[in-house]
Amino acid sequence: MTNRREQLISYAVLGVFAIIAIYPILTIVLLAFHRRSDLVTGFSIPDAPTFDTFRMAWEEGGFNHGLVNSFIVAASVSLLTAVLATLAGYAFGTMRFRGSSALFYMLLIGLIFPYEATVIPLYYVFKDVGLTDSLWALILPQIGLSIPFGTFWMRAFFRSTPGALVEAARLDGASSLSTLVRVLLPQAWPALTTLVVLVFMWTWNEFLLALVMIQSDSLRTAPLGLALFAGANRSSDPTLIAAAAVLVALPIVIVYVFLQRSFIRGMFAGAVKE
Amino acid sequence: MEVSTPSGVGEPDARAGPGAAEGPRLRVRARAPGEPRRVAYLYLAPALVFYLIFAFGPLLYTTWLSLFRWDGLTVGTWVGLDNYSQVLSDPSIRGSFVHSLVLIVFFSLIPCALGLLLASVIAHSRVRGAGFFRAVLFMPQTIATVVVAIAWTWIYAQQGPINEALRAVGLGGIARSWLGDFDFALPALGLVGTWVMFGVCMVLFIAGIQKIPLSLYEAARVDGAGRVRELLAVTLPSLRGELAVALTITTIFALRTFDLIYVTTSGGPGSATTVPAVLVYQNAFSNGRVGLAAAVAVVLTVVIFAVVFLITRIVDRDPTR
Q: pTM above 0.80?
């Protein structure tokens, strides 16, 4: 079945679509390395690549703040979600208790509903308690929104661990907590890495919540800063906007290059989290 | 959603878990071992508290708000289901849901069809560097939608690559500002979604196809099946699970789209690219019609639940069950 011609066709198909996938990204990267005075049109490769655009975007666009804010938010959300989801997944995956399936289904709903449907009351309640225009307004809701996927993911992990391990630990008189910490967690690193990486990415890329909650320039996340920066410079300078866009996307792309297996594996399990 | 996860694709134990490292899974348990344990609630509590306060609770609160006329500042008035009748009767709101349907075609149906076709071309041929191709095809998924929006704004711009290419081949007459065009803006944004999603579908389906036993194809050949029949009789039924996952991911993405539209067109020109999420944002945070925004959000949520339910019922139905 595998002959030379079929193989060539396969390479051609994969090649063409790989180019399609990479082309828009490449366009924007190349654009960023141009000077405004190059008056770029279309797809063009810079004669003398410049980093000036990046420097200007960094300073004028305030992306130094934006990237730090995004990092604080994404790191807190992904780490706290990992801790909470591990505890909850441990309960769902290894223990029997009344109401477990009802509670689990309630969490599953959270995988599907759009958080456009939560942002309205979140805004007005946070405004009443003075939490808007703070990073808390981004961190707390996104932990809540990441819990369903995290719990679902960790539950699947704990179910996959041999039950004999847990039972043996219990017979030895280990408490449930020490069973978790000493017996199960040492094996959980691959699953936890995937979880942290995905939640970090989703949180980093989040836009709507930041748009609604944040007013101060100094508290903008990177995507919010980028959208406002692009809006303000729309007609003037595409190279500057491109440079800013590259700055915002770069951290995640770097992580992706190193951990792409984790990304891809988790995305399919998180089917509906998108 | 557990129901839409095909075996082997969505279970972390297949690849991430220790079972993968140590060999085959030891056993599959229908339920957790041991006697009922009340300590479980202690482990669940922190996660549930966060979820209830910041996700599930607000969802219910939105539903409550949708029954009021409220400008976000003064005291609201109870209007019952008035906001919902407005959602159903207002042509611009109805139009936004129609736009969502168009986006489903571009974000979901086209990528899935394309992915299926390409995956079946590649089928079982051994390709070197499969990991590389997979990583590249998947890449659009990892880029922030705001960045995607900016890249494509440039691609569609008056001086952007598409128009330059058209002018270069003498078709300058049809060059235009694509996102500013009443007829082309929505399909143009749709194609962005196609771009974001086709790689996921391809990767999913290629992985799925490689799990189909070759003997099934050989049997089909013996029965004299051509390529098309092979696709319909062997490939498609075996890819049910993957298809359900792909359709679910992409449809939800299509229905929820906000960032892409907000950054590229803000729903314009006119209301040519308005989608429900944009209406939610505009009504809740700039037009002072919070109740109406909440009603649109609730209807959107219901639509998403209905679509996911339909997909799992129709596509993921196992005929042997």
A: yes
CATH of domain B85-314: 1.10.3720.10
What does the pLDDT look like over B174-220, one tens digit per residue? 888 899 999 999 999 999 999 999 988 988 888 888 888 888 888 88
d(Cα B68, Cα B76) in Å, to the nearest integer? 6
Taking the domains of chain A in order of start, what are their residue ranges? Answer: 6-269
Token pair, residue A22, equals 């990479």
**Do β-strands B77-78 and B68-69 pair in parallel, antiparallel, or remain unpaired?**
antiparallel
Residues in A closer than 8 angstroms to B139, CB to CB, are 21-22, 25, 253, 256
Residue that the structure tokens 């307004």 belong to: A137
Q: Return the ∠ at Cα A80 (arms to A178 and A78), rounded to 5°.
A: 125
- The domain A6-269 having CATH identifier 1.10.3720.10: the answer here is yes
Nearest to A114 among B10, B41, B304 (CB): B304
Helices A222-233/A63-94 angle, 10° precision = 140
Interface residue of B1, B28, B51, B303 to substitute, partner A, most A CBs within 10 Å: B51
Q: Do A95 and B72 touch (CB under 8 A)?
A: no
> Amino acid letter at B163?
N
Domain edges within chain B = 85-314
Query: ipTM value of the model?
Result: 0.90
Measured between CB atoms, does A43 come within 8 Å of chain B? yes
User: Taking CB atoms and an 8 Å limit, are B127 and A147 in contact across chains?
Assistant: no
